[in-house]
Amino acid sequence: MAPDLHTVPSLTAHAGDNHPDSLQRARSESSTLTSAAKDSAQSACQPQSGPMLAEDCWVLSGPTAAGKTALAIALANRLNAEIISVDSMAVYTGLDIGTAKPTRLERQAVPHHLIDMVTPSELYSVARWLADAGRAVDAIRAAGRNILFVGGTPLYLRALRDGLAPLPAADQDFRNQLLAEISGSVSPESGSKMLHARLAIIDPTAATRIHPHDTRRIIRALEVAHCGKRLLSESFAPDPHPIFSQQMMIIDVPRSLLNSRIDQRVENMFAEGLIAEVRAAVALPGGIGFTARQAAGYTESLDFLAGRIPLADAIRQTQQRTRQLAKRQLTWLRSFKNAVWIAA
Question: For the ranges 123-132, 155-164, 205-214, 232-241, which has the lowest average pLDDT?
């Protein structure tokens, strides 16, 4: 039976732009699906090797620095739920400050899953996250509790909602060729835009969905086209999971306030030892791998440690990249017209 969110105190909820209804309406609409219809929809939309979504699953998302962690703990306690992280950077051990992971006390208050899964040198794919999430859901259900997915990584949320179509495995040699092209450019941003322009010719549908600065996803889309018999865009699911959008909550923060929070958070990260955290990670066997170093703050810290930019520029560039990330997250999250937006 779905938990009642009206037991959660101090939450002001409003629906998306086209759905000015309350949280109760979103919940009641979800409950109108018959069991047979839900079973049919779930089997059609079920992610491969991922979790089976049902009414015991809830999603809390929002842009970076929106305050997801504190609200998630309050919600989880009210819902008798455990938290599954939907954060592509929280999976890395030792990268704590720059990823704003829940603290040890917060993780003691509510069990968290899919945090500190791999070392910074390892590649961690969305397919692996989906499989790990499926195992976490099974374990939580076995304990008789509900599931609260918390995070703002659109790639992971999309995989949770839509599943993953079979795609070719990584081709490290091809990736290295593309990375070499970027490193030979005037700047990482110009190299990323160059690859994005190439993607627009090969797979224009994928290019429209991937930001020109999202180097990791651009490279993956080019890799799929290079290695496989299909394009990345051909794996996009046309319809969302019926449960997913009805049981999703998104934190809504005014843009000016969000930007202010981001700037302050980044300043705090550097003051609390982000540079030392990166230096320690670099000293580990394998250092910081390609995926982990893409997070805002880590690229800039590496540039500072290499003497390429001063500390003030590292802070400023991290703030700018984080604001851009939040904008992309919000653009994607607005596609969920049935989600409940919570004013923060």
Answer: 232-241
How far, in Å, CA of 159 to CA of 166, rounded? 12
User: Cβ(150)–Cβ(84) under 8 Å?
Assistant: yes
Q: In 3D, which of 55, 58, 53 has the Cα closest to residue 33? A: 55
Query: What are 81's strand-pairing partners?
Result: 146
Beta carbons within 8 Å of 79's beta carbon, 6+ residues apart: 3, 5, 8, 58, 146, 148
The percent of residues in the chain predicted with pLDDT above 70, rounded, is 81
CA-to-CA distance for 344 and 335, rounded, in angstroms? 20
Give the SS3 label for residue 200.
helix
More confident position, 335 or 61: 61
The fourth-level CATH superfamily of domain 13-165+244-344 is P-loop containing nucleotide triphosphate hydrolases (3.40.50.300)
CA 74 remoteness from chain centre: 20
- Cα-Cα-Cα-Cα dihedral sign, residues 159, 325, 193, 182: negative
pLDDT bin (cut points 50, 70, 90) of residue 8 is very low
- The CATH number for 172-235, chosen from 3.60.21.10, 1.10.20.140, 1.20.120.80, 1.20.1540.10, is 1.10.20.140
Torsion of CA 296, 305, 178, 290, to 10 degrees: -60
Q: Which of 265, 270, 263 is nearest to 305 (CA)?
A: 270
- Per-residue pLDDT tens for 279-296? 999 999 999 998 888 889
CA atoms of 300 and 320, how far apart (whole Å): 11
DSSP 39-91: HHHHHHHPPTTS----TTEEEEE-STTS-HHHHHHHHHHHHTEEEEE--SSTT
In the chain, the amino acid numbered 330 is: L
Could you give the CA distance from residue 84 to residue 131 in angstroms, rounded to a whole number? 12
